[in-house]
Design brief:
The complex is a heterodimer of chains A (357) and B (612).
Chain A: H1 10-13, H2 16-36, H3 47-66, H4 70-91, E1 104-106, E2 109-111, H5 113-130, H6 138-151, H7 155-170, H8 176-196, H9 201-211, H10 217-227, H11 254-282, H12 291-315, H13 333-352
Antiparallel strand pairs in A: 1-2
Chain B: H1 4-31, H2 33-43, E1 45-50, E2 57-58, E3 64-77, H3 86-96, H4 102-109, E4 115-120, H5 126-133, E5 138-148, H6 155-158, E6 161-162, H7 166-171, H8 173-178, E7 181-182, H9 185-189, H10 191-195, E8 199-204, E9 207-212, E10 220-221, H11 226-246, E11 256-262, E12 268-274, H12 280-283, H13 288-296, H14 303-306, H15 316-326, E13 340-342, E14 345-349, E15 355-359, E16 367-369, H16 371-376, H17 380-394, H18 402-409, H19 431-440, H20 452-459, H21 469-481, E17 483-484, E18 500-501, H22 506-519, H23 527-530, E19 541-547, E20 556-562, E21 570-576, H24 582-597
Parallel strand pairs in B: 2-10
Antiparallel strand pairs in B: 1-8, 2-3, 3-4, 3-5, 6-7, 8-9, 11-12, 11-21, 13-16, 14-15, 17-18, 19-20, 20-21
Helix pairs in contact in B: 11-24, 15-18, 17-20
The chains are: A mainly alpha (357), B alpha+beta (612).
Amino acid sequence: MRDRKITLLGPEGTNISIFLLFLIFNFISWFTLFVLSDGIDLNFNNILIRQIVFSLLSIGVFFLLTYISIENLQQSVDYLFAFITILLALLLTTSPKAGVRRWFDLGPIDFQPSEFAKVIIVLFIGNYLTKRKSRYPLFLLLGLILMLVLQQPDLGTSIIIGFVIAAMIFVSEIKVRYFILIILIVFSFFFIFLEVGVINQNQLNRINDFFSSDQDFQQSQSKLLISSGSLFGQYFEFSKLDKIFVPVETTDFIFAAFSYNFGFVGVLIILFLWFLFFLRLSQILDVTNSDFDKFVITGFITLLAFQIIVNISTITGLLPLTGLPFPLLSLGGSSMVSTSIIFGITNRIFIENNLVI
Amino acid sequence: MFLRNRYNYLALFFFSYFLFIIYTIYSLQILNINESIKKIDEQTLDVFYLSAPRGEIYDTNSEKLATSSLEPHLFLNLRKINDDNIEQYKQYLKYNFQELKNSDFEEIFNSKEILFLIRNIDGLDYLERQSLLELDAFEIFDYPIRKYNYENVASHIIGYIGRPTQEEFEEYPESLKNGIVGKSGIEKYYEQKLSGKAGVLTFKGSEIIDFIAPEAGEDLFLTIDIQTQTIATESLLEGIKLANENFDSENIIQKGSVVVIDIDSGEIVSMVSLPDFDPNKFVKGISSFDFNQLNRIDAFNNFAIQGLYPPGSVFKVVAYWLAENEGLFPEGIGSRNNSLKCEGSLSFSFIDGSQQVYNDWKEDGHGNVNLSSAIQESCNVYFWDIALKIWRTYEGGSSESILQEYARDLGFGKITGIDLPFEKSGVVPDRQLFEEWTITKPELVRPEGWLGGDLMNLIVGQGAITTTPIQVANAYKTLLTGFSSPPYLDKNMQQIQKVKNFDIDEEFVEFLLNDLNLVTNKNGTAYFAFEVLGKKANDIGGKTGTAQNPGNRNNTSWFAGIDSVSNPKYVVVTVVDEGGSGSAVAAPISRRVIQHLIGEELTPVKFGEITE
């Protein structure tokens, strides 16, 4: 029923479970930042107010995406890809902020194009793999994007993009031996980049530190922070352990602060909600006939699940530090909006497949 | 083509990794929680502050008024208490210190502090202390104990100490570490000097890894002579007792003040305020019952600097100075020697035609009165006539407030700047103030505003005027020396005194001393109070005051005395709130203090003659 009438709310226009989960994740983020804020004043510098503004914007974006048909999206994906490539290239001409060039400075907020690049790449690969005869030299273009993100430098996002590319190609018809060959080529390129010094020294140090015995200070602190959350979290119990310093606890390390405040029970709840979301998403694979839908959904699941996994792995010391936001929890406009685009497109795919619950 | 079975491998990978992450967090939050808490304690340096001994306070003869002795105290290191040994320590404390109650144990073992002060163990001998230290969690540190050797005597000067409030530790950050701050008197005014620097114990986990010993505060040497202070306190108590016996007063007479000031230096030799309190009670924390009881009788008010009374006739010296200086005598009189006939009352009319009759305290009148005898016999009529002269000459003009300006020059209506907190300024009323009050305190003024009658009241120290005993003492000092300077209690202030020099010539001082001398001699209002001194009374001077109070409150009893008119050294001001006639109550109290100051044998305070 591709010509289904789209309304803004209700069973006709919105998939209930997707929208509810989207709202719940937003509320969890508000509550976490409310706990972390020193108090609320109506000021855009207040972390809670900031996140609420971003959230409201995200909900708007979610509904906006619901109006765009998957067909239109698929047709325009090449232009989007070209656009984001230009943006990423332009970013390298800006002056560095704290040693990196990840953001366009737009006054009160910073705009991070790589957050949107992740989503567009998923759509782009999905489109390419669906129309197998396309002449686009896929690997060259993806290689270009990866190079641009690595140049910022942003190793975390590069790895995510690399993993998403690999996962999406893996579920296509590619022969396993070619797949392994590609992986090997990518790895060898990675080490060539290392040699020519494209990869930032700071990132390398973190990787070196990780494999040497002395653990990163931030990671050992965040582990202590998570640990002192115990079963129910310090927010609900008397806190005597508030003397641990953890940097960027509202952004990349927010999950550590979340675990500290809401304990193991809180962790189980939020991870279970994400599991529900992924489970719900994967059910579309058995419903839809469109390969584009399937590839895109696979890409989105990989993107979000991998981001969550890497985020938690770094703050618990399982992986070296990279600096990735936790989707729909970390404070940050670009991350919130790009994640809401994923939810919006997913919602549209569900509606087009007649799934409203 | 999308390969569904390959997606399953991908999903399996994610699912297993999710489980792995959940296990990782489980092991952090549930399995290793205690280990982490230990790590946090170990990586965090905590500090515990040990109170510094406050500086000691001495009197002018280096007599110790307030001391801080360091005594050994037993502390419990709560970081070393765990589920295994808590019972052992409880039993040990219960057995050895039987005064500890169950509620104490709850407070000790539930405390969030690192170290908990259990008790003073000054009474234990060396071996007993050593046996305490064998238990790992016990620590012994010296802890200062404040002691006030003279208890109630000089309690308002020294003040008391207590736990700092939010405001206080914002002002004196060190007081939070010391756990103690001066709340009143010298203890408050010189908090910065006295407090010292708290010692710092640095803890890493449960171990003390660093100790910086506390630094004692600076000692203070006061101008007070504790012997004079003690005698003044006794005398005031005696006088108050006599007043209660002799007057059929509605309220119990219990408030009063004595101030002795050295006129050459401005040093306060003695400053008594009654009722008083024992500052030692605050050292261990005063019970709220005791506090409320003392607070109900205003024991924490230092009436010498906070008591606001109309000064009555002691204020007449202001007009005396003005009359001499400006040549402003009653109508028809040209100099201090010319006299008028006082018939016991003054009737006069104002320009608006209103007729007024003012009655002197002595109904038959004082007879022929000049400036000297007006002071000697405290004749109101003479001074009212001066007020009328001022009013008729200057009414509405810029010099209308000439009397008030003289009063302000002598320090009335503003704080003296003594080195004590919470001093009050009192009020010298004039037209401007009455206009303000018409808006802010309309119940205090008549709608007509400032009138000649108000000036007549003011000149004899009545009406809206209020003064503190220290202001009166300092004003007499200024008149006798020509120097106006804040009185002070800290000997070091001597070098930083701000002095204002007035043009007071020696001839005037001589006249004044002479006339004040008449007061304590035959026909003077204070003659009976000083009779006991015999010939010595010939060298004493003073001025009585009996100020009327509104309502059914008894008069305020005043006396401003001078130890010697030939060689004046001290001004002694005595006030007894609701003490009645100045000559009957305040004068004999001052007399006993003066006896001590001039080295005469002390005789008991005797109820004097009721005048005014």
